[in-house]
Amino acid sequence: MDDALQFRPLPKTHVSATSCRLLKAFKPPPVTADSPALLVMTDLSKVPPATIGAEATLEEANHSMLVRGVRLLLVVSASDHVVGVVTTVDVLGEKPVLVAQKHQTRRSDLRVADVMVPVDKVEALTIEEVRKASVGNIVATLKSHSRAHAIVVGQGQDGKQSLLGIFSASQIARQLGVQIHTSEM
């Protein structure tokens, strides 16, 4: 394709040194415990989820989390089906050491599949319940289950379950302006 014949470059402008600001979408709003829970949910229809393949190494998973600024990755198959979740606790905690000992291998030889929580063991919240909930309900849920994250699912138009969102204790804490201790297991 000869780009010079079909396309023209766009004109440029200067960025204002005094009035260029981020849009609100990049700065989640402050909330209170009584605010609607949806205000603190990462909506996966608007924000691409952080994913990784099951065959990735633990080092790759850790690096991916650091680069993306997250503490949970969705483990996906080649066909983009969620097959599990992996958190920093799974990658950096005691679990890899125990799994390596059990399999008589080195920690560096482990893959995400070895330490992830398989999807059939993952508990989720329904979007119907989340729509009726407050931020305080979500914090109470995370604390009662000793979790730093909760995923939200719903039924798609095709009748199949879809992953719609993720709650993160650290994101909620930032928006509330307080610390939240969940003692993640």
Annotation keywords:
about 180 residues; alpha/beta; four-stranded mixed beta sheet; 8 helices
Task: Explain how this protein is built.
With 185 residues, the protein is an alpha/beta fold. It has helices spanning 3-6, 58-68, 88-92, 95-102, 112-115, 127-132, 135-144, 169-176; strands at residues 42-43, 51-53, 72-76, 82-87, 117-118, 124-126, 149-155, 161-168. The strands form 2 sheets. A 4-stranded mixed β-sheet has the order 1-8-7-6. It has a 4-stranded mixed β-sheet with strand order 2-3-4-5. Helix 2 (58-68) links the parallel strand 2 and strand 3 (72-76).
Brief synopsis:
30% of the residues lie in helices and 19% in strands. By secondary structure, the chain is of the alpha/beta class.
Helix percentage: 25-40%
Compute the separation of the termini in Å: 55 Å
Biggest sheet statistics? 4 strands, mixed
Mean pLDDT: 89
How many H/I helical runs?
A: 8
Task: Give the strand line-up of the largest sheet.
Answer: 1-8-7-6
Number of strands: 8
Please give the radius of gyration in angstroms: 20 Å
Strand content: 15-25%
The SSE string, one letter per element, is: HEEHEEHHHEEHHEEH
Low-confidence stretches are none
Any idea what the shape is?
globular
Structural class, please? alpha/beta
SSE diagram, text form:
Blueprint: H1 3-6, E1 42-43, E2 51-53, H2 58-68, E3 72-76, E4 82-87, H3 88-92, H4 95-102, H5 112-115, E5 117-118, E6 124-126, H6 127-132, H7 135-144, E7 149-155, E8 161-168, H8 169-176
Parallel strand pairs: 2-3, 6-7
Antiparallel strand pairs: 1-8, 3-4, 4-5, 7-8
